[in-house]
Amino acid sequence: PNRSESQALPHTNHPHPKVDNFIRPSHKLAVAINPSRCRNKTFRTKQKLAKAQRQNRPIPQWIRLRTGNTIRYNAKRRHWRKSTLKV
């Protein structure tokens, strides 16, 4: 059946015009699913985050004295924004 101009579907350059109605996945979706940023965390995830928080500290000064200043800093320090945890 032929349609008149007023009933015709709007033409788009997209090969599948109905695809625009769906939400496209983006990188922001991956951030929302990250368990370390969820409000409701499992106990296991919370334990891992707590351990990572305890490990992320400078070395005590008495260690520098004991090792003769061969260990000067914690090489495994982590910045919360620069690197992610594999939790």
UniProtKB/TrEMBL annotation:
InterPro entries: Ribosomal_eL39, Ribosomal_eL39_dom_sf. The keyword Ribonucleoprotein applies. Coiled coil: none annotated. Residues 1-21 are annotated as: Disordered. GO terms for biological process: translation. GO terms for cellular component: cytosolic large ribosomal subunit. The keyword Metal-binding does not apply. One of its GO terms (molecular function) is structural constituent of ribosome. Keywords: Ribonucleoprotein, Ribosomal protein. Residues 1-10 have a biased composition (Polar residues). Belongs to the eukaryotic ribosomal protein eL39 family. This is Large ribosomal subunit protein eL39. The lineage of its organism: Eukaryota, Fungi, Dikarya, Ascomycota, Pezizomycotina.
